[in-house]
Amino acid sequence: MKHLLTFLLIAFTCSLYAQSEPHPCGSQPHISKWYKKYVANPHVYKTHDSLVYVPLKIHNVGSDDGGGLFAMDRLLDALCTLNEDFKQAEIQFYILGAIDTIYNSAYNSHASVLDGAEMMFANNVDSAINVYFVSNPAGNCGYNLPYAGIAMNKGCSGPSDHTFAHEVGHNLSVQHPHLGWDGNVYDPNEPTPTTVTYDYTYFKDTLILDTLIIDTSIVELVDGSNCSIAGDFLCDTGPDYLSRRWQCTSDTLSTANQEDPNGQSFRSDASQIMSYALDNCSYRFTPEQIALARANLFDQKSEYLNREEAQEVITEDVVLNEPFMEQIVPAEFVEFLWDDEGIADQYIFELSRLRSFAFTDFDTVLSDNTLTLTDLQLDRRYYWRVRPFSRYSFCTDFSEPSEFITSETTSTAEMDGARYKIFPTVLPGSARINVISESSAIAGLSYSLTTISGLEIAQGVLNQEGKINLDNYASGIYFLTLAQAGSRHVQKIVIQ
Ligand SMILES: [Zn+2]
Q: Quick one: which of 31, 21, 45, 10 has its CA closest to 297?
């Protein structure tokens, strides 16, 4: 609790709000007592070789008016990339419980890390990494607050971005390879100092108000002679003095040349996710970073581990069944059905009038493999698709889209003063005809279906659901006769 109070009471000065290009990372350097103890003797920490599963509590933050949420398929893509990035560390993440939706414009675009801390303290759950997807995390692509959680910029959380893995790396105590240079700018025209100082006010675990807390970092040499006491204290991350976003060469080194305090020149390793190299350069954690992250999990966050049995991964795309391709359906009542994916416990459903799905007319997340929509626009072509996922499996694709056309295919019948709706009257050979009534019972109505030549091919009595199932009938014109007491209604039916 002391940490939380410290956090709230310290004067925050971050004012990077609303700058056009977000800063790569707002996480401050943080060499904790545990970190120092670890790097002094990393081999005593038991981290096992097995794959471990770590829970993420996802908070999807939108604006007060109910808009601005991170689109669910993009959220899944971000989680997929995170797990791809952490495969090398044998750490995989899953969604703990339901995804939390928060409509709060002040949280969604927060000017300072203090606002972010308030958001986290108000919504965090215990024993999980809490992640908040917002539109503007204090001017950064993301940041991690020790004792609180991670704020991610939705715009920096694309499928090819590694900021999410970078911030989760921080959450598991991994530091920038350029530790000490945050807040400083390397100047190739000046002699490189042997030490740099950095501000870690936000994260100092003592109650000191309105006071900058400065630490000194030894500048890492190219020859590796001081690697265990310089920079991030790790020896396989190499020297790196670049504290702003930087570009890489084709051999994954920084385009910028640097010189260490001994005058030896070098380029930074752009492959490291914990560096500020552009996303197209970075893809990995170093072995020492991985050992550090795993030690932090096992030694400091063991409550995250072994909480649930991991589930299988979804490998199959969903098959769409109804409406079938090019089917003509009644605009006022469309039933969708797709194959139950088994392992999937949820589905993203999208309906659009654009083949590209650039805009959707309707989208939702469902735990069932069926959906009914009413009141679509008449005489329109619609496209629909479904993406399965589970709390453990996000690297899935949308199904191949299917399409259908809405038309006036609902007919009205009147019998004994009661009105019935019959739909669709144009349908495939294996489908259902529905009979509904707002005023009268359906159960007890008798029906028969005859061909155009008068041959009866089906007959029976409806139950209250009012469904007549067709079984692989040939294309053509049929007649449906409904009868009740002395009254009857004949309806033409077209099988496509
Ligand atoms: Zn960072």
A: 45
Global pTM reads 0.83
How many angstroms does the Cα of residue 224 sit away from the middle of ligand 1? 23
Which residues have C-beta under 5 Å from ligand 1, the single-atom ion? 25, 27
CA 275 / ligand 1 centre spacing (Å): 7
The residue count of the chain comes to 496
Query: What is the predicted pLDDT for the residue at 13?
Result: 31
- Locus of tokens 């390793």: 269
Task: Compute the distance between CA of residue 6 and CA of residue 87 in angstroms, rounded to an integer.
Answer: 35
Q: What's the pLDDT tens digit per position in 448-461?
A: 999 989 899 999 99
Domains and CATH numbers, the chain: 1-310 (3.40.390.10), 320-407 (2.60.40.10), 411-495 (2.60.40.10)
Residue 5 C-alpha to ligand 1 middle, in angstroms? 24
Six-digit token string for 267: 């380029």
What token pair was written down for 346? 């949820």
CB atoms within 10 A of CB 135: 18
**Buried b / exposed e along 418-438 (16+ C-beta atoms within 10 A):** bebbbbbbbbbeebebbbbee
